Amino acid sequence: MDVHCKDTSRTIAHPLQPVPPAWVMELLRDSPPSRFAVTTTSIANATALSRAALIDSVADAYRTLLDELRARGIYPVRIWNFIPEIHAKMESGDRYMAFNAGRFTAFSEAFRITDGDHHEVPTASAVGVGGTTLSLYILAAEQRGLPVENPRQTPSYRYSSRYGLRPPCFARATRLDTMLFIGGTASIIGEDSHHVSDIDGQIDETLSNLRALVASATGGPEAAAMQRIRNLRVHVTNRADAQLVQQAIDRVVADDTDIGFVEANLCRRELLVEIEGVADCT
Fold first, then answer.
1. d(CA 141, CA 121)
2. How far is it, in rounded angstroms, from Cα 68 to Cα 71?
3. Which of 83, 106, 137, 282 is the most exposed place for a label (fewest CB within 10 A)?
4. Domains of the chain (ranges plus CATH)?
5. Within 13 A of 120's CA, how many CA atoms are on the CB side?
6. Neighbours of 106 (CB within 10 A)
7. Where are the beta strands (DSSP E) in 74-178?
8. Which residues pair with 39 in a beta bridge?
């Protein structure tokens, strides 16, 4: 459950459940039946798999979903990945890096990507969840979206080997008509995490990245970018930080922005907050 209220003293970040945010179901409900669809699959007992087995399982899971979308003539525009024990040590890194290797394998086939050139991939987020099941959800649309990158950040598919033998594969956002689907955004400049152990610094940097990303996608001024945001899901690693994040967000977004808070581990241990959402591109 995502909870938001203007009274910051009552802000609660409940443990993240492995499902997309509520706006996805609202989008499906309010749109013509053929315009959007959600497809999902899971890998049971993912925490018991070896690195090689996890890579193969993730690749197979993505192949299955992307083949289904291709057969239906629809296109992925937003992906959610929920990874149990996301920081668990594995050979050549951690579980998130092994996940990335599996995703890279499937995307290499589906999008005909080459190292350092993955421009067709949609936006995504990958966060930690409890339990042992790894879950994938894809929001698909009847037309292709336009991938958008953040001018302040290195595209994920060009990350150095510090972040795994195979890089993450996702765009920072995807624009579809008047909607901008924003992937998980955190305190990263270039490819480096900033403001380690500093929640205030990470909040400010994350909001700066959101502002730059929306402005880049819409072509409008950064000063007005945050007013375009309509829905946000805020991930915090420490639920006590939710009040600070809400106070900072409330100062820059429109009063009617829907904001939900969840507690979750993020893709890098040092990150304390990550924000995803939807913005209006009209």
1. 14
2. 5
3. 282
4. 8-280 (3.30.1330.40)
5. 13
6. 20
7. 75-84, 89-90, 93-94, 123-129, 134-141, 146-148, 173-176
8. 138
What is the C-alpha separation between 11 and 248, in angstroms, rounded?
13
Residue type, 131: G
Cβ neighbours of 50 (radius 10 Å): 11
Task: Count CB atoms within 10 A of the CB of residue 45.
Answer: 12
Read off the tokens for 73.
């003539």
CB distance 261 to 245 below 8 Å: yes
204 by Cβ neighbours in 10 Å (0-12 / 13-18 / 19+) ranks as middle
Please say whether the beta carbons of 77 and 143 come within 8 A.
no
Helix (H) or strand (E) holding 183: strand 179-185
pLDDT score for 10: 57
Token look-up 């420490």 returns 238
Tokens of 97: 């890096």
Q: What letter does residue 20 receive in the DSSP assignment?
A: -
CA 25 to CA 42: how far, in whole Å?
19
Residue 101 has pLDDT above 70, yes or no: yes
In angstroms, the CA 58 to CA 60 distance is: 5
Expressed in angstroms, the distance from the first to the final Cα of the chain is 29
Q: What is the pLDDT of residue 4?
A: 47
pLDDT tens-digit series, residues 120-174: 899 999 999 999 999 999 999 999 999 999 999 999 999 999 998 899 999 999 9
